[in-house]
Specification:
- The complex is a heterodimer of chains A (about 325) and B (about 900).
- Chain A is mainly beta.
- Helices cover about 0% and strands about 50% of the residues of chain A.
- Chain A has strands spanning about 15-25, 30-35, 40-45, 50-55, 60-65, 70-75, 80-85, 90-95, 100-105, 115-120, 125-130, 135-140, 150, 155-160, 165-170, 175-180, 185-190, 195-200, 205-210, 215-220, 225-230, 240-245, 250-255, 260-265, 275, 285-290, 295-300, 305-310.
- Chain B is built from 37 helices and four strands.
- Chain B is extended and about 125 Å long.
- The chains are: A mainly beta (about 325), B mainly alpha (about 900).
- At the A-B interface, strand 13, strand 16 and strand 17 of A face helix 18, strand 4 and helix 19 of B.
- Strand 17 of chain A pairs antiparallel with strand 4 (about 530-535) of chain B.
Amino acid sequence: MASKQICGPQPKPESINCLKEIDCKQGAIRAVRFNVDGSYCLTAGADKSVKLWNPYRSLLLKSYAGHGQDVLDVHSSCDNSQMVSAGADRSILLWDVSTGKILRRWRGHAAAATAVRFCETGACAVSGGRDNAVRVWDTRAYGLKPMQEINQATDAITSVRVYEYEILTASVDCKVRLYDVRVGKLTSDIVGAPITCANLTNDGQGLLMSRSDDIVLLLCKDSGELLAEYSGHKSGDCVLESCVDANDSRVISGSACGNIWIWSMVEDPEKKPIKLLHNSAYAVCSVAAHPTQIGILLSASGRTIKLWGDGSKQEDDL
Amino acid sequence: MSDSDDDEFVVYGTGLEPLDEDDIPRKRALTLEDQVVKDAQGRRRFHGAFTGGFSAGFFNTVGSLEGWTPSSFKSSRSDRMESKTQRPEDFMDDEDTGEFGIAPKVLRATSDFSHLKRTRERTQRTFDGPIPGEPVLKLLLEPVRETAGARLLRRMGWRPGQGVGPREAPRPPRPRVVGCAPPPGLGGEEEDEEEEEAAALAAAGVTLAPEDAAPFLARPKADAFGLGYEPLARRPVLSTGPAHAPGPAAAQRPRALRLGGPRGGSVAVTGQAFGVGALEEEDEDIYSTEDMSQYDFALGGPAPAAASRASAAPAQHDNYLHNFCKDLAAAVKDFFPPPALPRAFRPEGARRRSRFDQPGPPPAPAQGASHQCQAPRVLTTDDRAVLVGGKEEEELEREQLRAAALKLTEGLQQEQRGSKPLGSFVPFAAHPEKQRRYEQYLALKRAGQPEKLMHLQPLNMNEWERHREKAEFEQAARLFQPLSAEMGERFVSASQPDDATNTMTPVEKLMGGTAEQQNAAKMKMFGKLTREEEPWQPCDLLCKRFNIAKPIVSGSANTGSRKNVSVFDYLKAVPQNKLQVKTAPSAELSAATTAIVPSASEAQTEPGTHETVLKSTELGTETEPHVTALKSTELGTETEPHVTALTSTEVKTEPELASAPENIQPTESKKEKTQESSEDFFFPEPAEKIDLFKAIFLSSSESEDEEEKAKQDKESVPVIEVHPPVEVSHLVASAPAETPVISSEARKRPPVVASSARSGVFANLDLDALNCPATSTFPASERKNSERDEPKTSSATVPPQDNFVYGPRPPTSLSSGASSGRTLPSVVAPTKHNSLTSEWVERTSLHKKKKEKKKKKEKKHKDKKSKSKHKKHKHDKK
């Protein structure tokens, strides 16, 4: 895993506040994502569009239309030239970021595609859907068939992550599956409740997952043992996302009540988790942490996204 | 400074210009922009690469605006134009002739005087002249240009012509010659003198510099001979070698063979007279290398010169460099050759093992391989059980595995039966065992571990059969999967029925995994309990895109990429299927045979030994009615058209069955039933496809023949090998009615197992001792059969006893009577028997005959097929 450069001192959690609020005007925001260096963000909206923003200046850069239904996930490649989006219309789209053209439209899923990721090189994209299937797409070829079909899951796939040599999928069938491409091994962990999101920590040692029963779990990737669990938030029936900070210091999760919950990763009984209110009317379904800077967050709730950060930072720095 | 001062000093070089007081040197370094390269005229030479590389102006244009202009030719009577030869300099800039140009006009040593010699001159190194060697004048004129290394060496005391290294004592004298004296022409006296001199020097403590290492000279090949071959050449004796090759090459060369007397006119002949062919091995060089140096002149071989040198000056050697000593460790360098790989080694990625991993089963194939290496014949587990008399570890382990696999399948099968309506589909209805295994296989496949089927297959199947059956199952699973099942693969059936009326009822949240795992997850005991690891094979392209080598995953079922299904895949397994059906009759069928055979023995009323019954089964359908029935019941499970044709033959033989019709009838009806039932389950497609295939590629008769032959072989081989007549007779003596059952069992068993593994009744018998005489002692004592066969099988008589009995043949009636006469009334007449023996036929030829007969029959009955079917129905109705 590429080590990420951590810049700046870690701010006190208390100092996190809302820097910007953007009304995206694309219906409900299904997902918000930073790009690879955190300078831009992408939002996937219910109005079938994807929008590219500069969140620090509330600037809409481009809008991409082409999906037939809600866009459920979006991800941009490491060179920022392409992006993939997964739609409820069962299709995965590959976009050219600068021109806004659709390069590929893959229709390999039998139900809504819920999650999609590029691999590190951008040579392939991995998508998961409600048809229990994970598909690997070749972005370089013109073929319309998936490169590989991964069919181990027995229920809907909620999240897909691709790391250097690993593909991590979370499924409603209570299993987190880690496919090691290099070794040729599938490691599945039974968690006991449907999983809405699964991530690896930045150091590649921890397995962070949001369970639908109001718990965020941190397991050891190698042994599968429980390292920590974070609770307090309400997940309701929402598919909530969780993520970790750039330096693996904090765990961030959305909640059904419109709050963003931030725990310190090492459990500290004295420290209470921080609750940041985004919007009490809607659930915070998507959160994204800045890939390099600590304390910069994006959250999506309802029709708006919010940029959170350390107040001491100047906008120019960001 | 005064003038007088100036006079006193000698000024060398040009003095610096006096500094201007006003021109204060700049403190700041030149910026990058100011650092511009300019030429002599103060023009900028280089320009930014991004601005075009050169600026407009007249650079490189002969220094003029116009550039190079063609010369004009103008000549008149008054002033003639001189013929002007153009030189390269006419086309050059001033810079080109400058110091750094391409044709600098400065004083320097030309290449004639330079140290580096041109390649042209290298060829003419021989100097023709009165004085041998290089001309002295040339050497004098050559400028002295030494390399830095040579200069350093000189400072350290080295002289040209010496070698590099510590000084040594003069070379020790050569060992005294023991044996025959060297020939007089070799100049022994000179050497003696040298030796004496050296000894004197060594005694005086004089050390000499080591000899110069001769530089390696690459000698250009000027002749057209083969590499390494030197032709015969005559030279004067004085010339020690060819002139063009002085130095070490000459030393390495074998000495010349000298001809002629010691005074004048002697001629040395060097080289080889004949070459060596490409395919020949070069033997000792008998022509030119004959030399005394090839002999040992002292006992104990040639004395190592290096060792003596080292002993002569050890102190000098050690202190060659101050503060450095020889690294002894480096000198003794152990070399460990890589281990020899076993032949069965397959390079496979080492699987990462965790300490939590369960100790898995030992790799089976490797074990088998090692066995094969150790023993020429592989003992089966049954053998071992007989030998040891108890269960071995391996067997226990296998049972454990089997139990594990069964446990795995049980739950899944129940689930499947409960939920899946397509469980009603039974491709192997004729064989409940096989069907059961098929179901287990389906369950295992569902669990993603179809390879575990191996543990469930019975032990008496060999490896090949197991693989075959597995392939068959795979085929069946693919073929007989209805569309709903294919769709079902994609989806998981709901764990609870959807309440269609009330959509608002909350769906119960799913808990994945087994109960144990769920409990562990509930108790938050994550780790070993909740973790599952299995091999997963990423596809080639994915690995390529991830830029890694494809991992070798052992035993992974899900390869990711879908197989291309070819039409011929369907054809492959179907014949196997048929064969299996034939070879392994179901339980009810064997029961049917038991029902028949008493009647057979009754009908025969003869020494009804085991082999006779079997024999009759071998010998075609038309000879013995009850055997025909047996055969037909066996074949009844098939749906092949030609098989039905076969059964129709039985209809023809029905009149002959009059002796025991009541015994056969029920079996017939049974057979019909099984046939009907199997027809229900079978897809008609494979048969049709096969027919199509045959129509295209094979003539039907051929293929049928082959099948028949295969069948015949299958049936006949075990009979010959397994059942020695003595044993059989023993059995017959005790229970004649049982024999057919055993025979059918024997037919079921594959030949390998049957020959090696004896269990049950045969366990305590020493069959090997009995086997050798057994094959031929026992004459086939069937007469009715042979009588009927007489017209067809009358050729190539082989008297069976001739092999090992010498002298007059004992009457066969005696032997048969001894074996079977106790229980059954022996009716065998010697004369008849003789006639019988004379009609024995070699097996292969018999088969052929039979085949031909069959062919004929089928041809006959092909049109009757439909009729016979009708008849059968009638028969049933009766």
